[in-house]
Recover the amino acids of this structure.
């Protein structure tokens, strides 16, 4: 089909096919369940749900036509600790199955049917990479402390429950972002399903904190069951907190479970996609109301449960001083903050080059949010993928961030960088970047700094 919009509908037809088969077989279809041997998944698209159902025992990498660095397919690959290259545009046309494929997640290169020399070269590279991570394992217990003694919190972002184990293995101080959308895959979960999942997470965390983000469905995290209908422009549509207001039953049942679980450990509530003070106040009023309901029922919960917001919409970043007075913490969600500020779809490979974390407008917004939090004395953390990349970690430290939440697999590299940085140098690097007029200048400058500090990461 020439019209892109109609061509995209092919996925809907494929979806119907899957759902029909699922219904006829009376079970959930596990794609790739009968894989044998090492497998690279090559395709046009891979939803987070599809990625989660893949057999991790055999899938070694993804190579996907669509998507950008912060699309959920890429985030899922990090969660599965496998290499991925997304946004390849048409790789699925060149691979029909059975080929040997190299996926270089470091450089974004995919090689189909490599010759023996290339294969050997990449076997060596893979072995160097494995050795590097093996050495990092030895640093798990070391504190995330700068050369001049600033202690930095490194928590983990997780998509799926089993990642808590990985996060703890890499030394996470807690879970800074628990994306709860997976619970809605395959239908709306009831309060008990929420509660069981959160309680189990707290048991595993053994006293460490858990930031539970309320439902952020819609757009890239699209779950038809939750949203109920298609929208022309879902990124700007009825998603996330807006959807929760439209479906108070869905919101309240999750909040009840979150609050109930707070009796069993250190829980914080995080509200996604808040774009106005009215939204925040309405969500907080709902939380108050659910608390009163639990009180009446004699159910225990943490009466001082911290309530914070993701700062991921430009309006909220600009008004951070006002929001800071009404929340207990901020978590900067750069994945969305970048796409909404620069008007660049985070999952569209054709504009991926315009998705620039080091864009001057983004640096100014981040600095504004950190400063607002500092003045009000509330914690400011960051959970966007930007902080999982060591080159930006220097800048973020220099801008004043003292708390990071990164994908579990990124914890050791970010920590190694922190341990090599002097805060005075980081602050100077941030000042220099804030003076730049173009993203490319800061990008090149930060890359050079990171290469000096962590040459082994760039080998
Ligand atoms: C973000 O937007 O930066 C974020 C961490 O949330 P998500 O990637 O789930 O949208
Ligand atoms: Mg987001």
């Amino acid at each position: 089909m020439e019209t892109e919009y109609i061509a995209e509908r092919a996925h809907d037809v494929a979806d119907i096919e899957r759902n029909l088969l699922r219904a006829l077989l009376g079970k959930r279809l596990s794609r790739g369940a009968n894989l044998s041997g090492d497998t690279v998944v090559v395709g046009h698209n891979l939803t987070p749900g599809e990625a989660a159902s893949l057999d991790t025992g055999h899938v070694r990498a993804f190579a996907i036509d669509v998507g950008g660095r912060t699309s959920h397919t890429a985030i899922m690959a990090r969660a599965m600790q496998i290499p991925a290259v997304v946004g390849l545009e048409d790789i699925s046309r060149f691979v029909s199955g059975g080929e040997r494929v190299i996926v270089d997640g470091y450089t974004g290169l995919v090689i189909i049917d490599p010759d023996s020399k290339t294969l050997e070269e990449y076997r060596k590279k893979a072995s160097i990479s494995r050795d590097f991570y093996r050495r990092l394992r030895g640093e798990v217990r070391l504190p995330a402390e700068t050369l001049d003694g600033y202690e930095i919190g490194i928590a983990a972002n997780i998509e799926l429950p089993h990642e808590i184990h990985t996060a703890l293995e890499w030394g996470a101080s807690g879970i800074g972002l628990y994306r709860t959308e997976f619970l809605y895959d395959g239908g709306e979960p009831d309060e008990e399903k929420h509660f069981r999942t959160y309680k189990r997470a707290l048991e595993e965390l053994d006293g460490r904190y858990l930031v539970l983000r309320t439902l952020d469905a819609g757009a890239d995290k699209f779950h038809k069951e939750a949203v109920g209908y298609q929208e022309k422009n879902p990124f700007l549509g009825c998603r996330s907190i807006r959807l929760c207001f439209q479906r108070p039953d869905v919101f309240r049942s999750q909040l009840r479970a979150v609050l109930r679980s707070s009796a069993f450990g250190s829980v914080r509530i995080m509200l996604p996609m808040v774009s106005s003070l009215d939204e925040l106040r309405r969500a907080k009023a709902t939380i108050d109301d659910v608390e009163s309901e639990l009180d009446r029922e004699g159910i225990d919960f943490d009466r001082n449960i911290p309530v914070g917001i993701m700062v991921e919409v430009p309006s909220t970043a600009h008004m951070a001083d006002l929001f800071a007075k009404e929340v207990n913490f901020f978590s900067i969600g750069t994945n969305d903050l970048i796409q909404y500020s620069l008007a660049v779809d985070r999952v569209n490979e054709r504009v991926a080059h315009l998705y620039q974390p080091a864009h001057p407008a983004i640096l100014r917004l981040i600095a504004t949010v950190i400063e607002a939090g500092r003045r009000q004395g509330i914690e400011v953390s960051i959970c966007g993928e930007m902080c999982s990349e060591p080159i930006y970690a220097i800048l973020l430290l220099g801008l004043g961030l003292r708390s990071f939440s990164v994908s579990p697999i990124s914890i050791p590299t970010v920590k190694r960088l922190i341990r090599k940085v002097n805060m005075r140098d980081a602050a100077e690097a941030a000042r220099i970047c804030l003076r730049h007029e173009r993203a490319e200048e800061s990008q090149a400058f930060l890359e050079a700094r990171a290469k000096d500090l962590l040459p082994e990461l760039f080998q």
Observations:
- The pocket of phosphoenolpyruvate (ligand 1) is lined by residues 177, 179, 216, 312, 333-336, 383-384 (CB under 6 Å).
- The chain has two domains: 10-133, 141-458.
- Residues 116-137 form the longest helix (22 residues).
- The longest strand covers residues 59-64.
